[in-house]
Amino acid sequence: MTNTHISRNAKRYALVALALLVLLLCVDTTWAASAYEEIANDVNKNGWRKGVGMELCPIKTAILLFVYFAWVATTSWCNNDAERLGDPDRAKWNMTNLFTFLVVSFGALFIPIFWAALPVIVLAWLIPLFIYIKARNRELHDADKVMTPSHLAFWFRTKILHQKVKPKKMSYESGSLIQLEAYGDGLSPRDVLARTVTTRNHNGSIAYNYYRELLYHALHARATDVRIMFGPTDTKFQYQIDGVYQPVEDAFKQPWTREEADDVAQVVKMLIGANPQDRRGRHSGSIMIRYDRNKKGKPLTCEAKVETAGTPNGEVAQITFLFKTAKFSTLQELGVATDRQDQMRKIINADNGLVVLATAPHQGLKTLTTVIFNTADRFTRDFACVEDEQHPYEVIENIAINKYDSAKGQTPMDVLPDVFFREPKVLLIRDMVTLDSWKLCCEEVKNDRLIITTARGADTIGTIISILKLGVDPALLAETLTSVITQRLVRRLCNTCKEEVIAPPQIVRELELDPANPRIFRKRVHEPVEPGQKDYYVPCEDCRDIGYQGRIAVFDVLEITDEMRQVIAMPNIPPEKKEIGLRNIAKKTGHKGYWVDGKRLVKFGVTSIEEIQRSLR
Question: Cβ-count burial of 438 within 10 angstroms (0-12 exposed, 13-18 middle, 19+ buried)?
Answer without folding.
Answer: buried
